[in-house]
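Lay summary. Proteins are chains of building blocks that fold into shapes, and those shapes determine what they do. In this project we predict the shape from the chain. Here is one chain we studied, written as its sequence of building blocks.
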Amino acid sequence: MATDQTLQCRDCGREFVFTAGEQEFYASRGLMHAPARCPECRSARKASAGGGSYGGDRGARQYYTATCSSCGGEARVPFQPRGDKPVYCSNCYQQMGGAGSRSSRSSYGSRW
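And here is the predicted shape, written in a compact code that computers can read:
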């Protein structure tokens, strides 16, 4: 069983305890290294990076208007259509199998 470790934060220089429970959690997730920052500095770093490791708050997504390749209606999509691939409105995209269909993944509908 692991024992508590006292570590020094690379940002603020303060000592903090890396508990045996935290060590077990890290090991269960396959993390091989002890944290380099104290909990306060880790929280501050996450907050300044926009909320975490998955991109955080990216702001409003820009949508583009295109003509649906199936029904001719308006399709709003989160990418700028290049014209070399079909673009579908939300309804047509769902009827074609939506995101579950590998063959239509390159042509997102407006629900994205």
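What the prediction tells us: The first strand starts at residue 5 and ends at 8.
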